[in-house]
Amino acid sequence: MESLAKLYYGGLVFFLHLHSSAAQSVGSVPRGFRFSPPAGAGDFSAFLVSSNRDFAAGFSRDPAAGYFALAVAGMNANSQPLDTIWMANRDDPFRATPELLFSGSLLVTIHQNVQWNSSSSTTSPSSSSSGDFLELLDSGNLRVVSRSSSSSPPSDDQAGVVWQSFDHPTDTLLQGQNFTQAMRLVSSISNQDPRSGSYSLQLQGDRILLLAGSEPYWTEAALKEHENGSGSTIYMRIQPDGYIGLYQSEQTRVHFVPFSSLNRASTNFTRRARLGPDGNLRVYYWQGGRMVEDYAALRDPCEFPDSCGSYGICSSELQNKSCKCPVGVTADGNSTIAFLPVDSRDAAKGCRSDAADANSCMETPSKNSSEDDFLMIQGVDYFAIRFVVAAFGVSTVTLEECRALCLGNCSCKAFFFRNDSSVCFHTDSIRSMLPSSNPHNLGFIRIAKRGRSHHTSRALQISILVLAVLLAIAALIFACYYRRSRRRDENKEEVNHHSDEEAFLETISGLPKRFPFSEIESAKNTRRISVVQLQGCSPREFQAELAAIAGLGSHSNLVALLGYCIHGKKRYIIYDGSTSGSRSLDEILKNPGLERAALEWSAKKEILLGIARGLAFLHANGGVHGDLVPGNVLLDLEHGGSSSPRLARYGLASLMRRPPPNPSDDVRAFGAIVAALLDGGDGAPAEDQRLREIWKCCAQQEAVLRPSMAMVAETLSSILPPKASFGIQSLN
């Protein structure tokens, strides 16, 4: 959406062209007005301009992808688009040439199908009435009004207003625009992607808040006592005198935030406040042909919630920030775990540690897991704590109570505790941390207990590193020797096709058994093993994927990986074969003799729970199934069928598909299996509605809207009745 982004951030990039047409109207248009961007138009086709020529309403266009958006843009002195003030469909661009129709409400259609309707987005009490005029005010407000005539320029009074863009801001607030507690400013994802991002501005009670998700990182509160004692501010507004005011009424201003240009009226340009993709709220005005920053809420680089990425610790001096990764102490106090940079070339991209991702919630979704522990980081603070305390207040607890509350909630990834004030703060999405001179300020990162964790002390880590270097040297020596011996033994079948790839695989620790080709030929017909031959993958791809699959570990809902085989240029992966009483879910669903009662409610849910847990385990350990279909779900009918479904052929799609699959592909495939279990049959139990809700969430078109498999597994676990009986019939 490159060109669309250029319009959206026109204050920084001036590359758009305004389509000049005699069809442009000034001020207002009557009911019955139609407009469609003409062929060959530029990146912005205006159909209505304000009387002062400061604003235009029209369609922005991305010529590469063919996307359109209905927008209001600020204009410069040359009547060219400067920046986007408002966008109707920022998260759902029109994917074909749209037509605008004003028929009492504002409609956008494609091939006569309504894509957007102003009536569906209004909360105005008069929204059911039809408008007579569509107006673009000199303030930049696009609105539908119901009145007998429209003045020129249109009047700014609120009489007869049916709908207005000022009630539905995107990321920008204009001078004179009222911003209420029912509204939100939402940042974009990036300067190249105008969709809704992670940061928002809201009014809550008597204060302005900037939020990262649900966590505040900046606030301004009213200082004056409320005159009417209601305890809540009605709205805020940017004033031409150079400040943001908080108001209970036109006569009752309870607070103001001054700009650099305080008391210097902007006569040539309307001020605008924009919540940027970095999370900062900035105010601009126009001067000398350029945009001038008048105010910024965040001045210190470490005030940004993602200044150093996840787990990073941000320090600043003279407006220069530095990022470092934390070192934590295990619960027994005997060893430390150091986080490592995600990108060694850019410390601001955050830190990582396998220990922080190895908690039991990923394997056993439990509301009260005793399988986890915490890594303590001393002398740190979290960006949100002081704002939470200021805005909402917190109850004080002991350190053990704070720890227990986090353990009891699988979404809690960390907690922070201040020993001197007993303040406890939990978070489910760890962003940047701050250093604290107070050693009593502690951070606790959730990890697996040391009995379950594969992580070791620093001394052991160094030993492993030394051993790895020695093994690498030995591997090189062995590879040289092996290549020479291969030339001598070309008559032997197993040596005839050996390569550098085979020598490399032999030196990788932790790989499963390597099967001779003669053994898999004799065993694959006995159903003791399942053999998959890989096609079209390079030696390095095979090496990488085999190491990745072997490193996943075992899980009760995954078919065990037994080993691999290389025979000449052919490569095979060997899984555990089915038992005599095992059948695939595909066989059960397609068996015409299977009664509907054979897949009763409890059985369906248990099958889905097992699949979800297997996928959640794969995703938590960096794996992806990539080929989740009913034929790759095995059920042991000799033991009740649904109690332990196992996933087969996982991890292979990365070698066979381009582009390789990702976890969200697995979520969507899981939704298809839910739909298959729900398909057909009359008189399905009412509980099936819960599964239908899960299916709809997993089948979302946009990958970012689909839940994680850990969330799905936890949801299924919470609705599974205790000691459920299952009714899957044998197919023998």
Automatic annotation (TrEMBL):
Annotated ranges, domain Bulb-type lectin: 33-157
Residue span, SWIM-type domain: 395-435
GO molecular function, one term: protein kinase activity
Superkingdom of the source species: Eukaryota
UniProt GO BP: recognition of pollen
Coiled coil: none
Organism: Selaginella moellendorffii
Secretion signal span: 1-23
Domain Apple, first and last residues per copy: 361-448
Entry's localization field: Membrane
Membrane-protein topology: Single-pass membrane protein
Annotated Pfam families: B_lectin, PAN_1, PK_Tyr_Ser-Thr, S_locus_glycop
Keywords: Disulfide bond, Membrane, Metal-binding, Signal, Transmembrane, Transmembrane helix, Zinc, Zinc-finger
GO cellular component: membrane
Protein name: Receptor-like serine/threonine-protein kinase
Domain Protein kinase: 467-732
Main subcellular localisation: membrane
